[in-house]
Amino acid sequence: MLTIATPRLSPAEWQDVRSTLTAVADCGCGEPEAAGSLRSRISHAVDALIGAKRAAPAPLLAHLHPVRDFLCETGRTRQLAERHVPSLAAQGFSRAQIEALALLGA
């Protein structure tokens, strides 16, 4: 679990966090499996047995890739992904907003 205190944000800052989390909600973490890989073949076999393949993650706008990468790494490591913080700050997120993204999205 992340050990971050709840950040103090204005209503507008919370709205930015919320809209960003909504935009990346269905993007998924990780890249799709390579065609012909063992994972891909198993996935196709399971789909044939139990039904159609689930929908692919929604396409993600390029400016949201750093947010997705930050959330995926934060969720995977259960620590704030500090190496992605500069790219989020460059997009205009404050440190408090970045911590809110981590708390709510990871």
Q: Give start-end ranges of low-pLDDT stretches.
A: none
**Beta strands, count:** 0
Count every helix, treating DSSP H or I runs of 4 or more residues as helices: 5
Computed CA radius of gyration, to the nearest angstrom: 17 Å
Q: How confident is the prediction overall: mean pLDDT?
A: 80
Shape: elongated
Structural class: mainly alpha
Major pleated sheet: none
Strand content: under 5%
The helix/strand series, from N terminus to C terminus, equals: HHHHH
Q: How many domains make up the 3D coordinates?
A: 1
Cα-to-Cα separation, first versus last residue? 10 Å
Question: Fraction of residues in helices?
Answer: 40-55%
Describe the structure.
By secondary structure, the chain is mainly alpha-helical. The protein has one domain (11-105). The chain has five helices and no strands. Helix 1 (11-23) packs across helix 5. It is elongated. The N and C termini lie close together (10 Å). The model has no long low-confidence stretch (mean pLDDT 80).
Which key features would you list for this structure?
single chain, 106 residues, mainly alpha, 0% strand
Helices and strands in order:
Layout: H1 11-23, H2 38-50, H3 65-77, H4 85-90, H5 95-105
Helix pairs in contact: 1-5
Describe the structure concisely for a colleague:
By secondary structure, this protein is an all-alpha fold. It has helices at 11-23, 38-50, 65-77, 85-90, 95-105.
